């Protein structure tokens, strides 16, 4: 019987067109993902990662089980529900089928179909990679050689992760559909699954939660991500994800859950036609005969009103009616409930950075609240569909349709009904946000900001998608087709930009307020936002009118007939509205177009790339041409914040430091920011030899060639002008309040290599040769210039900045004078020592906090209200100056200033005695508990101050490994300042994050991982690996030795220059020599391990036991396993012989029950398995090898194990 | 006021001709529309109720063109469709009140009185605060009637209203309708001949989209006077009789069929003459003319 039902279910599905449509959708999606450039699933491949690597195939397989949710619910949810919907349940249940046969037959029958449907992705991927090369279009991997076909690479993930995921989902949907007998509840299940996944994403922000997240994610996506987080590209390309460890546990847990659900379904399912409700028994309504005899009732005559005001009353009443109806829906309540749970969980991980929280300023809370968007979208799509179909679903449509209510009132009522719900939810979100703020002890509620954001951006989003969904439902005239079309619309919207349709006029509901900055508010984003929203609202207005005209009223559903009826409905007022919305749509569209494409230049991504390609092809020949260097900068900058304009006028002195006479000067204007050079003159005259206007590149022929050692004065005026608004990427440097730009905006000398396309995959597309990211260490051109470029070595600097009266303007140098003139404020800065050619221009409405360190003036320019961490920053400045001054070299300036700038970017940057610092990072960081939370403002300040030495006192050559001199050493400097001011546990926590970031970074390397000494602008190496390595170095050879090496290096290499002592800039190689000099021979190998190679360890503690010795001390026996690997640039590893000094440590417990190091000593380890016997005085708690994670180890958690007393073993 | 239907035609997209050249004039009072299931009664009623389009032809209600001035027609319309549902989680008084608003009864005091009286009238007063989802078929049907009577409609269309009502409810409902019938056009469709017989001054018999007969029920009975013959036969003979005579109905009475035959004289001498009633008219029109 079971087989019979299974076969029946199977053949039922076999004869349904939907089954084939599902198959086709998945097939096309996956086939496109494997063979086209436009569609990617799960981020795709690129760089080193093979498109058909086992890693990518597994990821795609798992991600597709997500996409399949929709189909899964449709197939599994209705397996039993169908009988109820078709009212055939009585027929089924009165046969002799047993409950088990019926349920399991239906389940497995549907499940087989589901697996078959899902196998389309498997077939599509195999086929795609086999035939991709022979298709008429080019796959993204056209230029690459890919792995040879291996069936198991497709089959293993399909079975291990694909089918298990299907089974888990299938059982949940099956149970939901079977037990609730309500279709909408099935979707709610899907939402719960997705939320579980979301929550796991939220909690993994804390490193400690990774295990939990691995287990909780029902789709095993997080598990997969966490399991493979440190896999190198080489591993990803060759290794399948084995069913072991967390992967296995996750599967076991969730498959068991699924089986339990099926069992529960079996026992809860009643083989009865009438379900008893889960919540309360439905009471049959008893008929009571009324005391009033119906015959005697006289129906009163009433007034029937018509006209516009009546319609408004009807509209309002009906809106309320619908709103109340939706709010009572159990699925609706479930969606909200789940959303709120998601938000509550998320609120615990609010704004994390290295495990430290941000202050819940309203702007951050708003960002957090936008996580609810997903739930809004679900509500919008489902309930707009539900409401459009409401009357027809319950079959009251003929009654309601015959009522004397205009068509627009009915549709508007549904719209307003939803609006009422949205407004309610938004108010609820505001309350949630305020509560969140209160719970963090933050009381500066900016209610107006909440309203300004949620009731503009958010509500526009809700309106646009609701009306779109109304329209789609009206046109499709089938609820599920409507849902599916909305789904397709979202997908299509995603791929639209990948296919080159990027203009906001074509991207539905485009227009963004940008991120809110306490400094700049919503700034200039408001204008473009307003226009874009006007455009889209007018667009959906048109859709609304069409929906009114074509909406089904009565029984006519044929489009032809609806068009005929539509003409009748096109009354004068409706026609007027239709025409005016259409006019508004068209005219706002034109206005947007005028702004984005006429006032400003609009280039698609591809067009932009083409310009870059042309630039490279045309001008590359000038790359290494000899040019003079800037030695003097003297400019007057006039900033007009309210117009977002500025001009810069003045002169550079250019000196010929080359051994040749120079007669041609190549000037590169900053075309990226659309700078306009009004004039540019050379003293003594010059004529334009050639002008590449497209590229802003001009060749000047000097009237009098520049002799060796001679200088020429170049005067110019350049202008930045903001006109209207742009399509995308609007300038956030020059803003109303918080302008921050640097000398990139000014004319520069020679070919600009930065403008070339860097990404190798993109370069291949344009048939450009692959490009090295940096020059080799022995390249003379690289050695002759610093990281700040070849325009200058050191400059004399003077600048006058004018700005609006309320603002303070700042540039490097000492303030000479400030004055007011023509209602503007002027600041004159001058630097008294040479500095690097890298300067910032800043203007904002600032408060100033002042302090002093010896005779150095310390100043923080901050936005009012952001006082939280000023003291920390000042403290950090003082500690840093103390440490750096004592250990490296004296500070070269008499002042240090930190300036807050808007959060459009989140970094801090070190200019000469000037550090712009984003409001988004240090200023609103919250350090609740100095015992537990890392002090990020303190650390970032120390790092940036470190750059005053590492970068400004000694600038490195622009070759591979350069950042090891500036970034890594600043990182080290900050670490040392931190080390002396915080507890070791916190230090260890910080380093753990650094290690995690390094290991994650290398697993995503797209080109090649370099050893630290050859780093090529790879942040995960020069910052994160740098921290770990430098910390270990000072641990191995001693802090004072490292400092001595740095001190000696600095004093030898101070202010290097192309015309200085060494005629070049230093490289990492130079610094390593100083480190080597301080390292004893027995440890020399660590220099090679840390800096010159990629070396990884696998240290693991197998067993820890202890016994009490007669003398009241304890003997701890620690069994460990150690391995050492060397990796190449793709992450291929080979084991190498061990002869390493590694820490062995034992922890006890202090009075508060916290871990306390009892013993820590380095042992030379030369074989894989080792046992250490250590005597400690106190009772050991745990012990292990490399317990503080000084070495680079992918499994840093297994280094330490709890100690067990020997007798108890 | 008069409802005039002229040359009305409607063919569905699946080729079914729902209305074929229908011409009817309906005056104030009760009008019965008799016909078997699938005859096109509901199609005609939906078309009058502005819910369906006609391919050709016109319908006028007084000065109004029903097919184009839908909004105006709906103001004076009370419509009870053949099958309908309700919002399950809304109670009767709320929904009725809501529908009253949509009918344009915006004066809340008047509306309250009206809704309450209609609930009394349909004997739903005691159950007014119960969710409609829990209503029995009869209660639901009465609710449907209550909503159709909102705002004193001038044109009431009730499609198979007595289906699913028990005899007592049916009587009450028919009484209610008859109270209204005097200065209102009430169109009642049914396949139960008794309904028409008891209530309607005017009627039409409808089958396969065509009007087979229109007129007064008494005239109709008059027409067949003396032409209806009855006989009790054996089950096995039924086919034989069907072949040889204009059989208009066969009913089992006590286990054996009793047949009615249309004939100007006693068909073969074995029949007995009876006084035809409206049911015989109905079957005559439907089967005899087929």
TrEMBL record, chain A:
Record's keyword annotation contains Lyase: no
Pfam families linked to this entry: Peptidase_M1
Keywords: Aminopeptidase, Hydrolase, Membrane, Protease, Transmembrane, Transmembrane helix
Domain of life: Bacteria
Boundaries of every Peptidase M1 membrane alanine aminopeptidase domain copy: 875-1058
Residues passing through the membrane, by range: 20-39, 59-81, 102-129, 158-177, 184-203, 251-274, 330-349, 361-383, 415-439, 459-476, 483-501, 534-552, 573-594
A molecular function GO annotation: aminopeptidase activity
SUPFAM superfamilies for this protein: Metalloproteases ('zincins'), catalytic domain
The name this protein goes by in its record: M1 family aminopeptidase
From TrEMBL, chain B:
Keywords on record: ATP-binding, Nucleotide-binding, Transport
Keyword ATP-binding among UniProt keywords: yes
Protein origin, superkingdom: Bacteria
Domain ABC transporter, first and last residues per copy: 3-233
CDD domains, A to Z: ABC_drug_resistance_like (cd03264)
GO molecular function: ATP binding
Transmembrane segments: none
Signal peptide region: none
Pfam families reported in the protein's UniProt record: ABC_tran
PANTHER family (UniProt xref): ABC TRANSPORTER, ATP-BINDING PROTEIN
Family (UniProt): Belongs to the ABC transporter superfamily.
Protein name: ABC transporter ATP-binding protein
